[in-house]
Each structure stands twice: as C-alpha cells, then as structure tokens.
UniProtKB/TrEMBL annotation:
Zn(2+) binds at residues 98, 116, 173. This is Mannose-6-phosphate isomerase. It comes from Salimicrobium flavidum. The lineage of its organism: Bacteria, Bacillati, Bacillota, Bacilli, Bacillales. It catalyses: D-mannose 6-phosphate = D-fructose 6-phosphate. One of its GO terms (molecular function) is mannose-6-phosphate isomerase activity.
Amino acid sequence: MYKEPMMLAPLFKERIWGGTNLRDMYGYPLPSPRTGECWAISGHESGTNEIMNGPLAGSTLRETWTDHRELFSEEAGEEFPLLTKILDANDKLSVQVHPDDTYAKEKESKPYGKTECWYILDAEEDAEIILGHYATSEEEFRERVDNGEWDELLRPLKVEAGDFFYVPSGTIHAIGAGVRILETQQNSDITYRVYDYDRLGQDGEKRELHLDDSVEVASIPHEDPGIERTTAIIKGMKREHLISEEYFSVEHWDIHGMTHEIRNPSYLLFSVLEGDVNVWIEGERHGVEKGDHFILPASVKAFTLEGTGAFIVSHSNKEK
C-alpha cells in the first residue's frame, strides 16, 4: 500500500508553561503564545495526527492503526504504542510521576502507563531538569512534601543540547525553564503531580495535586537506570544508539551524503531535527526537512537516505 514516508500533520497543545520557541525553531504555525507541546507522532485519543499524503491522506494515525494493521507488521495492541512529542518549557513544568502499565490498567482503566525518554534539543545557560529524589523511604518522602522541603527532596541536574535521559515509570521528574526536548514515550497521558510551585491555572485556582497516587507509583528510593550510548560511523551516516528497553528503541542519526541501503525492521518513526534529506524508496525520491515527522511503514522494506540532516528515529519493542 505505502511505498513512501507517511507524513503526519503535527498537533499543538497550549500549556501554562509553554511559549513560542516551537515556531522559532521549526516554523510551526502555533495556535497560542503559550504552546507547550507539539504532538508529532500520536495515535492517542486526546490527539491523533492526520496523514498528509498517499492513499490514506485525510485519515488519522489512530484510524490507520485500527484499520490497516498490516502497515505496522500486524503488531498487537488496541492502541498505537508510542507517542513522540516536542516540548517547549518556557517555564518550569510541575514535578510529577507516571504509573506503570499495571497501575494504569487497574486504577485508570487505560492500556498503558508512561515510560519516556528525553533528547535535549536546546537548553538555555544553567537550565535544569529534576530527575529523581533523595528520600530513602515513603515516610521521609511524605514528610519532606508536607514540610515543603523541596530543595532537600528533589534532585536537580544541569542539561545542555545533545543530552539524553531515560525516565521509566515511577521516576519523579520535571523539565525546567529554558529547555526544549524531543520526548519518546508510551502512548499515555496519565500524569500525577507532586508539586506545582503554587501556580494558578487558567481558572485562577491552584492546579490539582495527586500525592497519594504519586507516592503509590513512585520509585522510592530513586535509582538511576543504567544506559550506555554507542555510536557507529557507516557510509554517509553517524548512527548513535540512545536506548533499547521494554517499550521502545531510540537512535539519533546524522546524515552526510548518501547512506547504504537500510533495511526496515518493522515500521520506524522519524522526526527531522535539522537539514533537508531525500528518502529513496524503490528508486523514488521523497524529500523531508527540518520539523517534519513521518512513519516508514512495514510495507517499505528498505530505503536510502541522501543529504545533510539529523533525525530521532524510534520503533516499538512490543511483542506481536
């Protein structure tokens, strides 16, 4: 059916911490000066991308997952498994945590919890994230929250462009002001807020916190997951492996020239971070550029890349 990239129209979400950097970085037509998220590759019920080309143009990714599973190697599951976002943290996000699959199914009646990872696209000087905490027990965690001892509880890390972080479900975390990231995650939107800096929402009230759920799902004490970035230089491409874990694999590709033919293992998700690149499929050229997001479906068995650019490339690791 498809012998070309399945190009997707991005969706945008207004957030109280958002800004206009997604317009400045990628030329996106933002709906609001507080645009915090670009849902770049999504089949989620709260927002799914429209397909812009090919025989399914005008359909959504969510519909296509249901009706044309052959494009995804007949992968099992009611929902498209992954969600790719770009986040513009013009202000700091809430301190939060996400549940695992079991808790999501039992407590929220949703198919997936939320494990995610972050590739830092841009960071202002001295920008930080929160990744983990210092509490050694649930009692200590609750005590420090009750006493507002955030500096003693939360673990800050300085970040810069090109950094990569793995954030499994159960990890206390927050993205700080002045950070732009590309996030690859499970297809879930379940968030439990631990702390929100006493900010007011659009209704003038403090946003809801979820301390009991947060404590129940949080990893206490925190443990850093071990990840090892590896790089291979092959014809026309520097291919950096960022992570492979239960739900997804993520790589960063730098293209300079013409690559060798690349076999498509199943279906691949692409976000173009920089440049202009041609995707060659069965002798046909398909141009993609900075800010584009697309899927190479399972019907594309092999492809070649040509040009100068950078991608984040991911795929699902769910079993059939």
